[in-house]
Write a structure and sequence with these properties.
With about 120 residues, the protein is α+β, with helices and mostly antiparallel strands. The chain contains 3 helices and 6 strands. It is about 20% helix and about 40% strand.
Length: about 120
Amino acid sequence: MRTAIISIKPEYVEKIFSGEKKFEYRKNYINASRFIIYETAPTSAVVGMFNTSVTKATPDSIWRYTSHSAGISKEAFFEYFNGEKKAFAYRICSIFKFPKPIPLEYFGLKRPPQSFCYLKG
């Protein structure tokens, strides 16, 4: 099972843990079945993880399929995918919130991933 650390803004992390956001959207394919959540500033730490499966389609199709649990507005979704021909929707399954934030150094990283990075081993 390949694992990636992904950077997510605090407002979306909150919606993931509340169950409002059941999909994480990306412009690029991430070849992993487990995502570790790095919450960006001000938290700046790893806060949880989830298992995932991916759907690839046009942004219009992805929105029609996932909008009921998007956790973001239609406007924000289409602004993010503006000009893109493909979109990736990563389903959030088996979410686990760590009891306390974990520093990146624990995972052997010196700086946060720009979007994502794969974990070794």
